[in-house]
Amino acid sequence: MVPAIDRAVAGLGDQPLLARLGLVGPLGRMNLAHMGAWILFFGVMTGLARTDGMHRGDALPFWQQACAEARTGACERLLMIEGAYCGDNVGWACNELGRHSVDGRLVPADTDRALAYFSRACETRFQPGCVNLVTPSAPVAANPRALDLRLLVREGGPNLLDMPEPERFARACRHGWSFACEKRSASR
């Protein structure tokens, strides 16, 4: 890379860098001012940790609702998110994928695939997954456990194992999980 960088710098010639880039005149100075303002803005936002906050697209209930409303690409996105969480050993997500494989609405019905997902859910000790292994034709649904929420509501950060359960349920409530709002209210 060093020879390429040397050639690029030599290609700039004797003119100052700003002149070479066309940033010398009044329009160039305005462009520099705008770039500086954006750099300052994003620097402050990053410093205040406001760039990685919760977005409604991070919330699984959002995608469940969007899929139910048949919004374009929503069901595919829901399956992708649930698949990623199942891969991270979230028992609830594995159980949901198994349920989708039984009902055949979002993916083609496939009992073997459903049993594999239910088995994975059961391995994570998600009880409905174990029940569904026994009677896969009428799969049982359940809300995520507090343990599952450690990943489901992490908002792009690390898992929330150290976060107290009431705070996890409060965050889940903000994400649109209605059962978590009820649990949070009951614990007060």
Determine the number of helices (DSSP H or I, runs of at least 4 residues): 11
Query: Strand tally, please?
Result: 0
Number of domains: 2
Q: Fill in the CATH topology of the largest domain.
A: Serine Threonine Protein Phosphatase 5, Tetratricopeptide repeat
By CATH, the architecture of the largest domain is named: Alpha Horseshoe
Structural class: mainly alpha
- End-to-end CA span: 61 Å
- Radius of gyration from CA coordinates: 25 Å
What is the mean pLDDT?
85
Shape: elongated
CATH class category label of the largest domain: Mainly Alpha
Sequence stretches where pLDDT stays below 50 over 5 or more residues: none
CATH superfamily of the largest domain: Tetratricopeptide repeat domain
Largest sheet: none
SSE series: HHHHHHHHHHH
- Determine the fraction of residues in helical runs and give it as a percent range: 55-70%
- Give the DSSP E fraction (strand runs of 2 or more residues): under 5%
